Amino acid sequence: MEQATELRPLHVFVCTTVGRHHCGGLGSERILLRLRDQLEHRGLTHVRTTRMGCNQQHHQGPVLIVYPDGVWYGNLRVEDVDEIIDDHLVGGRPVERLRITPDGEWASTALT
Ligand code: FES
Fold this sequence. Notes:
By secondary structure, the protein is of the alpha+beta class. It has helices at 28-42, 81-90; strands at 10-15, 47-52, 64-67, 71-73. The structure holds FE2/S2 (inorganic) cluster (FES).
């Protein structure tokens, strides 16, 4: 089991907004479950996870954000979760191939 005591606190937000074309409809529930299962299994208590609402990026979804790093991941598959844990949440190096940049205009009235 990994030692999490020396790792800095991180907070992972996973968009699970329901809808056929939203992150929930694109498989984010399985991503959140895999993330939580692996964090628990490996004793990685430095990572907090929270469900997140829509950030108008589901055209790049499923979306996951890591704070305080401000790193956005998108187009995720459940198979990507372990790499994010290993490289970023434990190793401190974002997984560049999975990063996205939020785009479009922000409009609070369009948020779910
Ligand atoms: S539903 Fe996830 S960003 Fe919109």
